[in-house]
């Protein structure tokens, strides 16, 4: 059974049964049979299904959002926004999917050649709890459009969301077996990956989970896309709009209660504007209201679980023992939920191991640097390379940041976010491969070369 707890109240939610081996086998057989039909389905059929899914997600956004908020604690308004983003992604692939699949001609020395995009088969998605709809849909929508079928292994605490996702595909008229929820725990994943009917795996999660999945898939020579952790730099230079940078820094750090791979976690600020930025950033972080996620006036809900809150508290303790100063925050609320107030650390020793970890909670690290070279060096001095946000009005500085920050994504004068149109992913321990746009769709397709006589 999957035991679930509402992190806002500590209330036990109804447990969800775990699938046994026979049920998993039946799901794999359905996926295999459905792929044999869906792979040759008309593009109009695929786009119509995605469009219906977009409409359904929009129509049922409040119901879907409440499931996520109860299971993992994000504010209801942010859950609704997440479901709306999913609706937009379905519509994006419904509109642009056919052009992503168009064949193209290439010049060869003799005869003629063209490139075709063909589906691979059933793909397993191992997904996390922090954006329980969006993380799945950014795989699901392009997979359906590509002619693949999907199998979802979702996080244990968001099994209600997982069931809702599978239900929505059926409600939209998707064929049985097109997208199935595998209600299994982590220990059962290796067997599914190893099954010959599963052709590839995509995972969003920790580097530890990514390493295990990649190892299993590697033994079977199966394609893997990994979107792993991040400790993104948020760099502020003297030419930046300090008011806007400080405001966006607060939003970046506390969105989803700081439980986002791409939210700014390390604020790296030039010494010329450090004091001004720090004052405004501190004021903004102190004003963050943590509380009932169902209340529209709440800025930040609880962490996803008591275990996750304790992990952040343990990291805070190690940082302070290493010499950092907790300026404020990082406190439990007097409530039954897994709450933690927004906080800021200064003076974090740059060579401390804990300073290079990902803090998955509403705690920021603030650093002072004297020039752009030091900013880039500090930004890159971690094992991760997912995203980054840079604030400058200097074109030469912008070019340096774009070129020299070792990350899969850089946002200029804005906080980083994902969008259906642009590729999403990282480098180093943040993983490999890309999601979204045509690039994400093509990750799980056969780029087939067809040679013909001239």
Automatic annotation (TrEMBL):
Q: Which domain of life is it from?
A: Bacteria
Keyword Oxidoreductase found: yes
**What does the UniProt keyword field contain?**
NADP, Oxidoreductase
Matching CDD domains: ALDH_SSADH1_GabD1 (cd07100)
Record's SUPFAM superfamilies? ALDH-like
Q: What GO MF annotations does this protein's record show?
A: aldehyde dehydrogenase [NAD(P)+] activity; succinate-semialdehyde dehydrogenase (NAD+) activity
Q: Which residues form the Aldehyde dehydrogenase domain?
A: 2-450
Tell me the PANTHER family matching this sequence: SUCCINATE SEMIALDEHYDE DEHYDROGENASE [NAD(P)+] SAD
The UniProt family comment states: Belongs to the aldehyde dehydrogenase family.
This chain belongs to which protein, by name? Succinate-semialdehyde dehydrogenase/glutarate-semialdehyde dehydrogenase
Q: Which organism is it from?
A: Stakelama pacifica
For this protein's source organism, the top of the classification is:
Bacteria, Pseudomonadati, Pseudomonadota, Alphaproteobacteria, Sphingomonadales
